[in-house]
User: Fold this.
Amino acid sequence: ITAHPPDEAHPFAMFDALAECVRDQRAQIVAQFVFGGSEIGSNLMRDLERAAGPVNWPVTWIHADDHSGREMTGTQAYAVAGTPIRRVILDGRIVGSCFADEYAEYCLLGDILPQDLAASRTAQTRSVFEQCEAALQTIGMDFSHVMRTWFYLDRLLDWYDAFNAVRTRFFEERGVFNGLLPASTGIGIANRHGSALVMDAMAVKPRDPRVSIQTVASPLQCPATGYRSSFSRAVEIVVPGHRQLHISGTASIAPDGASVHPDDIRAQIQKTLEVVAAILKSRGMDWSNTTRGIAYCKRLEDAETVQRCMREYTAGSASIALTHADICRPELLFELELDACRFQ
Assistant:
């Protein structure tokens, strides 16, 4: 579910829209993203609980490093209906939700924090991986079941290489490169806790041999591992009746791994959307199959251009949220992650 504020004067009204949709679908929220300025923090849970009731799911609230205003760009929630939900608790905090159907067990973890927020950035990075692993172990899963990750790094451009080194080392130790390499987003954005980073993750443990989970290549880009970034361009899960495609955070990067159209926002958006469209097409999908997306915009003054271009290219999909964040290279201004689904 993606909800946007109706106007700048009433940013929290989007929580009412979210709650109404959840009630209409007789669903339960599994995990939630909230995007907005840090000044709204004291009101966040109060207004969310007013609209949706007691918040017993993980909420990852993030805001751009240099933007502390009240402006809020949206909220997204994963929700399910028709099956019980079990909350995942680690060190007394609700950090996730798990549920199951006849085909698989599913888990979404959110707002995973390092144990010591005063530790070095690399130590905090190692800690969030270990905390994620510990949370999964409480429900009988491990990192081999992780298909999608999100990393929100405070001041990302100062230490993205160091983050990548820690991630790669952890994946080597856990044998991740011998199995499923998760799709991922790594973005520069601060969090309400003041930690160096927060992490979200999605894990799936098949119950039925007909379920398959596989990485998907990008027809127009090289593997991210080609420039020492340890994630897959996309991951697809196939269950009887439908396929879900999870496309990683994607930016204006050429097949050789070089940035394309530095500092040209319109050209970067067009390149990014061409790359995402090619991934969709490779799996027999198009923009109409979109179920969820987040567009990350580096410069606030480009927000209107981003929104206009997104409407033009994606046929006005309302399931895509926009937020203000740094991209993984100084010259990049735009990034898009996308989920899509096709019934068969």
The radius of gyration is 19 Å. The chain has a mean pLDDT of 92. The chain is about 25% helix and 35% strand.
